[in-house]
Amino acid sequence: MPSLANTVPDVMKAIDPKEPGGPDVLILCDRPVPRPGRDEVLIKVSAAGVNRPEVMQRQGKYPPPPGAPSILGMEIAGTIVAVGEGVGQEQIGQPVCALISGGAYAEYAVAPFGQCLPVPVALTMIEAAAIPETLFTVWTNLFERGYATEGDTVLVHGGTSGIGTMAIALCNVFGIDIIVTAGSKAKCEAALSLGATHAIDYKTEDFVERVAEITNGKGVAVVLDMVGGEYVPRNLKCLADDGRHVSIAVQAGATATVPLFEIMRRRLTLTGSTLRPRDTAFKCLVADELARTVWPHVEAGQVKPVIDRVFPFAEAPAAHARMEAGEHVGKIVLTME
Question: What is the mean pLDDT of the chain?
Fold first, then answer.
């Protein structure tokens, strides 16, 4: 049986749409407070990050993985108020942030304890809630699948998105030059102010030509792409020999035509991943790695998420509308307190 703090109620407010739709379906409803199972903790949620997969889930385009709650939301920050079997009682009261498969848009959420990271004094709860999804994604794709390392130059599309701003922060810490693309002069200026080495306005400039100019024709070691479609063959032109192309989303199309002989001749690698369906064991391993390699920089205040806007929990429709408008720079966060 889980050990519950005395203050845990039986019912909570949550956002759990009955059917797909626009932002207006994101209304508060009553749901039972979940109970943590083995190796899990119950977290009283202070804040939850808003992510594009949640917009897609709300639209009916991205169902939650098997076994995940239908309540929206994949990242939270809050305080542990109950522990399941296998987790020590001393964890009750600890502030943590966590990547979860669903259930974040609620007053309480369950997380595997191995996917939790401690919230250091350098972060507010709002900032902590804006870290897990982008940090896990950028680390596993740009650094693990893409093998980005000190001295490299990389290209990241969507430079002012949550993913893009986290990539800038990590590249700054690990000595990597980062070229980003963004859709306006103002967004490019914002990316440069956050530490991007170069920013390309893809609406007025050809990013393939600009990357060639910036790298003196050499190309980049890694491309982190969330666009897909016709961007893929263009991205390949940006890669140096032995370069790696990592796909993490397909916002402009799930298929692409690629020049196979060019891939062979230049020894290019095409890879990619989706994080949400990966099992708990994998995500716990990533959390352990992040605790060792990145979290010291978080604790030192050297890695912080960029917060675009914070909305009260009841204003989740406005938060999703902000995400869909595409004008945000950094992360959108819901606050439950």
Answer: 96
